């Protein structure tokens, strides 16, 4: 098994009741099939790495891999084979490198703390990191990406952690919720607790075959999230991560789902449908003018910054068809 199974007791119980949750967290032997255009680093983050564990791809934003650890392993994870996987939480020396970088790059206005899952870090480590960031750049916007409200909602019952986050009011918590079955009573209570502590909530969802690739499932999820005070922010087309072909929806069908979805949810409940340019280049909304008509190489993508690339049009079952054609994916180019 290339990517070991990891689960929390909360998820173990949920997998017994929900096929969708089981599909997202239980190992499937189809993961062993990799297509030759799948990538170990599908977002091409390696080329933008700075200060040890940070990614500086956009001038005004810095992404920091605060840990490689997650409470549970999502089987479709785009960082499943990434080099950060083996890392523990940032130590003081690594934190110092990040803070020095922030100090020297005043154009950075937003820091995204990501992982792994940042909330696997202990509360003392959080305190050290958040205080360090605030002392270095007092008004910088903080975003924290996490799946913990789904995988281990009890983590947010830690009063010290909640007080610490409340002290950094104005931080955004970017949740990762893919299916209405994940909105258990515990997860709902956790989201409410975060909001009551002054945090702003937005959600990212990955479109996954056999999990949420139906309009009524997505509509139910996004409407429920809005009701819970969580703005559906992004819906992502699956990245070309190795061993995840069975989760990817053919892009033409994804676009049809999203078009239909617009008829069923309010503007507030409608996320931006987007994909990262395979191999690097940034996130591109999957709509004109950034998405072109499909050709031999796949769907042409143009990032607002000028990077270009292609996303393949895959069959419903690329593994069974033995599809694998490296020429589909060209390295991204910059036209600016
Ligand atoms: S929580 Fe995020 S980083 Fe961790 S396994 Fe899931 S998708 Fe990957």
Structure description:
The chain is of the alpha/beta class and 336 residues long. The protein has one domain (9-334): TIM Barrel (Alpha-Beta Barrel). It is 27% helix and 17% strand. It has helices spanning 9-17, 19-25, 92-104, 123-136, 148-151, 159-167, 185-196, 215-227, 251-261, and strands at 49-50, 54-55, 61-65, 110-114, 141-146, 172-176, 200-206, 231-236, 272-276, 283-285, 299-302, 307-311, 333-334. The strands form two sheets. A ten-stranded mixed beta sheet has the order 1-2-3-4-5-6-7-8-9-10. A three-stranded antiparallel beta sheet has the order 11-12-13, with no helix packed on it. Helix 1 crosses helix 2 (19-25). The radius of gyration is 19 Å and the shape is globular. The chain starts with 8 loop residues before the first helix and ends with a strand. Residues 324-336 have low confidence and may be disordered. Iron/sulfur cluster binds at residues 70, 73-74, 77, 79, 115-117, 147.
């Amino acid at each position: 098994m290339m990517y070991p199974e990891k689960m929390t007791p909360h998820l173990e119980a949920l997998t017994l009741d929900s096929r969708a949750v089981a599909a997202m967290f239980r190992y499937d032997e189809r993961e062993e099939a990799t297509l030759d255009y799948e990538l170990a680093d599908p977002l091409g983050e390696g080329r933008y790495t700075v200060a040890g564990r940070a990614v500086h791809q956009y001038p005004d934003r810095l992404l920091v891999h605060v840990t490689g650890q997650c409470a549970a392993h999502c089987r479709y994870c785009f960082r499943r084979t990434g080099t950060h996987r083996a890392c523990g939480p940032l130590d003081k020396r690594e934190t110092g490198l990040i803070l020095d970088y922030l100090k020297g790059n005043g154009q950075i206005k937003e820091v995204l703390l990501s992982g792994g899952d940042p909330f696997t870090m202990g509360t003392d480590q959080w305190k050290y990191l958040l205080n360090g960031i605030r002392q270095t750049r007092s008004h910088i916007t903080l975003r924290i990406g996490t799946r913990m409200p789904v995988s281990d909602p009890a983590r947010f019952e830690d009063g010290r952690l909640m007080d610490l986050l409340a002290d950094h009011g104005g931080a955004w918590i970017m949740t990762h919720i893919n299916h209405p079955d994940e909105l258990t009573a515990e997860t709902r209570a956790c989201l409410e607790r975060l909001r009551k502590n002054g945090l702003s909530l937005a959600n990212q969802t990955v479109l996954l075959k056999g999990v949420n690739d139906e309009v009524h499932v997505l509509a139910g999820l996004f409407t429920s999230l809005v009701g819970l005070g969580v703005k559906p922010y992004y819906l992502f087309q699956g990245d070309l991560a190795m061993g995840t072909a069975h989760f990817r929806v053919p892009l033409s069908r994804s676009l049809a789902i999203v078009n239909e979805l617009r008829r069923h949810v309010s503007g507030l409940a409608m996320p931006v449908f987007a994909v990262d340019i395979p191999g690097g280049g940034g996130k591109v909304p999957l709509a004109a003018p950034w998405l072109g008509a499909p050709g031999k190489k796949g769907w042409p993508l143009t990032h607002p910054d000028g990077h270009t690339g292609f996303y393949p049009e895959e069959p419903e079952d690329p593994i069974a068809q033995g599809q694998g054609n490296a020429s589909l994916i060209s390295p991204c180019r910059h036209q600016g």
